[in-house]
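Recall the central idea of this unit: under ordinary conditions, the amino acid sequence of a chain determines the structure it adopts. In this exercise we apply that idea directly, starting from the sequence alone.
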Amino acid sequence: MTDPVNRFGHLFDLSREMNAPTWYSVLQLFATACTLMVAARVQQIRSLPSIAWWGLSAIFLYMSLDEATEMHGLWRTGFEGYLIPGTSHVFFSWIIPAIIVVSIIGLIYVRWLFSLPRRTAVLFFIAGAVFVTGALGFEIIGAFLADETFFNLSYLIVSTLEETLELSGILIMLYAMLDYLQRQDIKIAFAAEQTTSD
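Accordingly, the structure predicted from this sequence is:
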């Protein structure tokens, strides 16, 4: 009775990559990027500053691509062979440049965040806090708990919480964007092109 779990359980394991949760996360990130593009385009049409919106949409597009391809492994460039003290794998060295990049983005966007409607700003902050807590906070904890197999119980629990927080943060961000667009009286409609025959 355990064979189905052994053979197919990884397809729905939050602590693994390249499976159903990964696919869902990729779609979530891409959908959020698309809503940010809509907001950016509307800002342009209204002759309002749009660079921050375009920048954020590019970030979410990258995150979607990264989730699908694990490109963050490239962030280890310059840290090859570096082992964070107290950890067992050089795999986690990508955390160091990630913290630097996230801090820079946060500093760049903090002033813009306060320019948004209060409800949207609060939702953006919550989404970012939840996501970063998972993506970096719990990743750091997992780095100290992981053994050679990455299958010890403590690491699996932490990595599952990490992925859950990431998915939750993205979902909050997507909701925040849809809520923002609605409050801006922006409606997205899909219309099929009609052709007339002679």
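Confidence is low (pLDDT under 50) at residues 1-5.
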